[in-house]
Amino acid sequence: MVDELPPKRDSTPDAAALDQAAWSDMTDNLQKAHSELMEAQVELERHTATIEEMRELVGRVVESMADALVIVDTAGRIERTNAAARHLLGRETDALAGMPFVAISPSPEIPATPKALLERAPDGVLRNLDLDLHLSSGRRVPVSVSCGLVRDKSGTIAGLLIVARDITERREAERRTAVQHEVTRIFAESATFETAGPKILRAIGEGLNFEAGEVWLREGDLLRCAHTWSKGARIEEFSRHSRDLTFRLGEGLSGRVWKDARAHWVADLAQDPGFRRLDLARAAGLHSAAAFPLQPGEQVLGVMSFFGDAIREPDTLLLDMMTSIGSQIGQFIERKQAEEERGALLVRLYEREHEIAETLQRSLLPERLPDIPGVLIAARYLPGTAAAVGGDWYDVMPLPGGRIGMVMGDVAGRGVRAAAVMGQLRNAIRAYATEDLPPAEVARRLNQLIELGEMATLVYLVYDPASQTLQYVNAGHLPPLVLSADGRVRRIEGAGSPPLGGLLTATYVDESVQLDLGSTVLIYTDGLVEVKREGIDQGLAQLEATLSRWHQADPELLLEQVVASLLHGKAPADDVALLALRVAALNQARLQLRVPAVPASVGDIRRAVQRWLEAQSASAADVFDFAVGVSEAAGNAVEHAYGAADAEIEVTAERRGDDGIVTIRDWGKWRPARGAYRGRGLSIMEKMMDTVDVQPGRDGTTVIMRRRIGKR
């Protein structure tokens, strides 16, 4: 009997076990996917919350914007506004929603629909359009408007965005600045307050939207009306009655201003118990007033008052401006009154005081002009026939980098005060110029420096010989003239800026012009070109013709001919100052200059020698070695040769063959070196030069330095 074989085993995994493993894997994957889905859901919710927060933030920002924002749909109906827009339009949100924009603001200049915008601006953007916004309520508001299209996600035009900024304050500031400019111009053109007063009244009244104005001048212990101005016939009775009135100290509005020596504002004349002309004011339609003293110093000389046709709340900035104008008017009146009071009394003193005035004036002008290679400079000053010192002045200053500063100014008025202001400005501009500031910044600082009520014109020019560029600022002065080598004359007009002291805050602008070789720049004061009964234009035309006729003359002869042609050998009525600078070619064969023996001259000498060497095509090493040697020699002459006295140094540079020779001479007596580390200048010079020859003598010391150009 055959034994039974054991059952055969299957070599593949049990099917049930396989199903169990697959199910386990699928469960794990589902759990993982579920976990990731939950995390994604949490992240989505977080981002959604962030987006909502940002949307709310943007909404709050838009709502709190200072600029008015209005969104209209394609038909021009209002969809959304912010708080500034609702305030500007004078409506609430519910009243604005869905209304046509043109119904609220019928301003034809503002496009009220996307279609209207595209007709005006094909690119769909309109920026910074200044206009008066007309409101259906009848109110007009000056605004700056910008418009742009609103598009949906697909890029389709969905509406129009209108942004408006209320520029009432800006317009008001512009108006006030214009008034200050006009008052300054009237001062400049008027000989007496009798002629200036009515013009100033009109300028202030019309410029600041008043209806009437008055000038009250002191006569002993009374104020008497000197000038009136009004816009229309309905106010004539009020003005006529004013001309018959007088006020004592403390009486009425004008008397209170006199007593308090400060400006007053009356918002409502009906509430002012001290106003004596209330019935006349009501009949003329006048309801408010502002008045300020004409006060050059402590003493009040008069009062200027203005009246408006509406109740107006006090305006502090406007009162400050009026106070400033009142100070200027007071000084003008005081100056003219003083001139009248002197009269015959001063006739006997004219000659002696004229001599004093000329001495004082000249003491404030430069004793000599700097000797600068590459330019020729000449100047003239002629005192006027008036005994009092004038305010004309000029100056020339070497500046860092080899540049040259030229300035000419004219201080308003005469006398010691004008001279003091002139000296203050001259010293200040020298200090500012050494800081290497642009001309416009120098003028801005001078305007801040000058005292309230003072005024001066000024032109400040900086010439760079390296680039032959002239940078300048003109603060209300007559235009400089440029005379070309072929005789053509042109005025450097530029943008122009107000005089110093003319405005509390003023903007000064830098201008620049390129000068050609042989051209001459001339600056001058108005005493040269003011022609009686013909005006400044005629004088300028005559000046330009003279320059053109003598264009080949050197600057010294040119100025002589200008003075002879315009003044005809007579002393000018007003002071005359002239300053000319000619762009000349640097003498390549020989350099020669004399400079004051002061530390500041060492840099001027070094730069002059460097420019001369560059004209010789010297290498950088040559220029450096000569610069070091020349600085040491010049510094020794300044430090050791002279004491605290005026003295000079003479410098010459010439080329002999391949050698450059620089000679520095002084006329002093050298002192021994002081200090443990002094007295090394000679060794430094010998190291830089091929030869150094020091020749002391009874009349001074001469240092001759020689070095072959291109040797090393």
Could you describe the 3D structure shown?
This protein is α+β, with helices and mostly antiparallel strands and 712 residues long. The protein is 39% helix and 25% strand. The protein contains 19 helices and 26 strands. The strands form 5 sheets. The protein has a 6-stranded antiparallel β-sheet with strand order 8-7-6-11-10-9. The protein has a 5-stranded antiparallel β-sheet with strand order 2-1-5-4-3, with helices on both faces. Helix 17 runs antiparallel to helix 18. The longest helix is centred in the first third of the chain and has 50 residues, at 15-64. The mean pLDDT is 83.
Kindly summarize this structure in a few lines.
With 712 residues, this protein is an alpha+beta fold. 39% of the residues lie in helices and 25% in strands. The strands form five sheets. The chain has a six-stranded antiparallel beta sheet. A five-stranded antiparallel beta sheet has the order 2-1-5-4-3, sandwiched between helices.
Portion in helices: 25-40%
Overall pLDDT: 83
The strand count comes to 26
In terms of per-residue confidence, which ranges show pLDDT below 50 for 5 or more consecutive residues?
A: none
Task: Briefly note the structural class of the backbone.
Answer: alpha+beta
Q: What does the radius of gyration come to?
A: 40 Å
Tell me what portion of residues adopts beta-strand conformation: 25-35%
Strand order of the largest sheet: 8-7-6-11-10-9
Distance N to C terminus: 127 Å
Number of helices: 19
> So what's the overall shape?
flat
